[in-house]
Amino acid sequence: MLTSLTIAVLAAALPADALVRKDGVGRLPALGWNSWNAFGCDVNASAILTAANDIVSLGLKDLGYEYVNIDDCWSVEGVRNTTTQRIIPNPTTFPDGISGVAAQVHALGLKIGIYSSAGETTCAGYPASLGYEKVDAEAFSDWGIDYLKYDNCGVPSNWTDKYNACVPDGDIGTNPNGTCPDLTDPAPPEYDWAKSNTSIRYDRMRDALLEQSRTILFSLCDWGNAAVNTWGKETGNSWRMSGDITAEWSRIAQIANENSFLMNYVEFWGHPDPDMLEVGNGNLTVEENRAHFALWAIMKSPLIIGTTLNKLSADNLATIKNKYLLDFHQDPVYGRPAYPYKWGYNPDWTFDPEHPAEYWSGPSSTMKGTLVLMLNTEDSTATRTAVWNEIPELMGHDSYRVTDAWSGKDLGCVHKKHSVSLKSHDVSVLLVKGKC
Ligand SMILES: *[C@@H]1O[C@H](CO)[C@@H](O)[C@H](O)[C@H]1NC(C)=O
Ligand SMILES: *[C@@H]1O[C@H](CO)[C@@H](O)[C@H](O)[C@H]1NC(C)=O
Ligand SMILES: *[C@@H]1O[C@H](CO)[C@@H](O)[C@H](O)[C@H]1NC(C)=O
Ligand SMILES: *[C@@H]1O[C@H](CO)[C@@H](O)[C@H](O)[C@H]1NC(C)=O
Ligand SMILES: *[C@@H]1O[C@H](CO)[C@@H](O)[C@H](O)[C@H]1NC(C)=O
Ligand SMILES: *[C@@H]1O[C@H](CO)[C@@H](O)[C@H](O)[C@H]1NC(C)=O
Predict the structure, then answer these.
(1) Measured distance CA(47)–CA(91) in Å, rounded
(2) Which residues form the Alpha galactosidase C-terminal domain (predicted)?
(3) Segments forming the whole domain that contains residue 372
(4) 244 tagged catalytic
């Protein structure tokens, strides 16, 4: 039921300049799977259909995972169709074309995504869409595509930006604290990055997609360049805020630290994207996998699984199926994410790639409570304590009913605070409910 309070929240939460799409597409952060972190360029129709079938059989579809996304390397290198100018699906790896795979994915009740770049070639060197935005958007629509990841490779030199922007990963200049003191050619303070050549390259594809009859979610991937946080939500449904993730805790912590400073940009229809999930990949521990997933979920990042689903361990499968985190992530009333309320290891607002904020909280309308997350960023076991009176949503009352989101265990009526011993890089996630 929509109460007047709910309507007030919805209205207040809607940024005037967001890219609002039909049928609520892009209103909430996306849930799905993508081929890249699992297979890289070794992608083919059968790998895509296996993933789609696994999403159904593992119960992920029932939890809302819906997009099955083909990343780079799906086409024929170096040519376009001389008649239609379209990109040609690789006839060996995609014998029924992209439309054939799309039809089978749709038959499972799922949606399908594809990949291109705002340049002349993709990152792996295949034809990309700069200058062919209309042709490609029309082809994607004809093929039944529902989601486009749009990368930043193959950019010709005459599309370079006039100025440099500070990027959080520090590819340009050095940024010990998230600023770029050594940046050359910085933009003047009043510069509008929405008018930059980078922004224009992405606008062109947005406009071409908006002309199509299909609603195609637009996922920008400019790696945090050109101050994309300031214009991303006018252009796309989500925008990558950093360079690529890897299946290493140090990289996951680094991106979490960067994204933690961008939480004011998260709202309905607009989501900074800290890149796809690595849950199940590399040598991440069970604790690191669940910390990665929980942080991405509470930051309301797109949750795009990037592993071979039928090889996922029971622990990691349980992690990506966690009902409390998915409910929080898909909240229909609160567009805002969890915010850090205390850094913990560091003084508040410290930019530290190894030790991101450790204490987070945010409201849930569906669970009628507050989700609280505690993270141990240290390399050994340590205790973390949630103190009700430090948490904005809980201040002013002493006792709350608490549920542990990993075990589902009711911890009863908890007075003033809750302490946990956490292994290295583990998280505790609590649902804190009514007063008691
Ligand atoms: C399809 O791709 C998967 C994942 O890389 C690979 O294991 C499989 O051998 C490929 N199948 C064919 C027919 O090439
Ligand atoms: C190019 O497009 C035409 C028209 O749709 C089609 O008949 C032809 O098979 C395509 N060529 C290739 C190489 O895909
Ligand atoms: C975009 O690129 C063109 C051609 O290289 C250049 O003249 C122009 O200054 C650039 N515009 C911006 C806003 O950076
Ligand atoms: C770069 O050159 C291409 C080809 O001449 C042109 O279409 C495009 O508009 C140029 N880009 C800019 C930013 O001027
Ligand atoms: C960030 O680091 C630079 C260079 O070390 C320093 O000049 C600047 O004051 C620092 N900024 C903040 C906000 O700490
Ligand atoms: C995992 O750890 C093993 C042993 O330390 C190492 O050889 C391997 O390269 C690691 N794999 C990845 C993907 O990091």
Answers:
(1) 15
(2) 355-431
(3) 340-435
(4) yes
